[in-house]
Amino acid sequence: MLKPCLENGRIEAGCDEAGRGCLAGPVVAAAVILPPDFRNELLNDSKQLTERQRNTLRTVIEHEATAWAVAFVYPEEIDQINILQASICAMHRAVAQLTTKPDFLLIDGNRFNPYPGIPHRCIIKGDATFMPIAAASILAKTHRDEYMERIAADYPQYGWERNKGYPTRDHRAAIATHGTTPHHRLSFKLLDPQLSLF
Question: What's the predicted TM-score (pTM) here?
């Protein structure tokens, strides 16, 4: 059972990102403030849900949240500042877009750069512990998946509608055959050394 908050009586925003391990596409972060009485039995870490469940919850969260925001950091910037800093940057941008200023940030994971004027706590497996982080994980994942499906139409050979830019065998094979696109992260290890054995 997910916890609604870390401390009662304060405005807490949950933050999470999606796409950190991908070879292509942006890293996407979300920040979500849920109302104190928010309850949904389906709400969980986005990785534990089906695509249909995530999309259903996205609609509920975007309709019922006190405030929510999603931010993208694209491959060119990822290559400049590295994926960890890009993930944190995306979270900062999402927090900055919130229409309600939170008193406190709940961050999924163990690394974060302090956001000016708002204290935070990093929580490992926070998306499976706290409702606001779980909600953020769902928004980050669904918004990123939607983006990858959209750009997949321009580059059908990479199968992004299926792999969402993650380093699957087929995705790496497509890079080996067709080269990279403007959506690939050139600072990442894009080719699988095992492919040369076949």
Answer: 0.95
Q: If we measure between CA atoms, which residue out of 66, 61, 30 comes closest to residue 43? A: 61
Whether the predicted pLDDT of 53 surpasses 60: yes
DSSP symbol at 66? S
- Tell the burial category of 136 from Cβ atoms under 10 Å away from its Cβ (0-12, 13-18, 19+): buried
**Cα 108 to Cα 145: distance, rounded to the nearest angstrom:** 19
Asked if 78 and 27 count as a contact pair (C-beta separation under 8 A), the reply is yes
d(CA 19, CA 84): 11
Q: pLDDT tens-digit profile of 15-35?
A: 999 999 999 999 999 999 999
Q: Is the Cα dihedral 171, 176, 178, 184 positive or negative?
A: positive
Q: Please, which pLDDT band fits residue 45 given cuts at 50, 70 and 90?
A: confident
Alpha-carbon span 19 to 75, nearest angstrom = 11
List the beta bridge partners of residue 69. 31
Amino acid letter for position 43: L
